[in-house]
Amino acid sequence: LCYLDCTNAKLINKSAFAECVSMTRYSFEKAEEVGCQAFAGNASLVQIELGKVKKLPQNVFFECAQLRYIVANCLEEVDDEAFGARKSPQIIKNKLWVAAEQELLEYEEFVE
Fold it and tell me: Entry's InterPro entries (predicted)?
């Protein structure tokens, strides 16, 4: 299993998917809240859809070095340590975050 579709989940608990090293993609279209370290250690994670999540908490993507795309339609706040020691990726139109050594891979429109 490398893709998980949890379309109806509204809450992603702390450390819920931590250390799921083979997962490459998650989809949480109706998610409203995500806990600290929820995806920490997902070494293969490339893409995640976080629906209605407004905040990315501390270490939510710690040690997720392959993460490239975060789709979050309602994102308002990102903890300074959401990505652990990695620098936060650029925000694009509050819908798509792109993380690849600060290189823009795909975009819609930049937010000022």
Answer: LRR_5 (IPR026906), LRR_dom_sf (IPR032675)
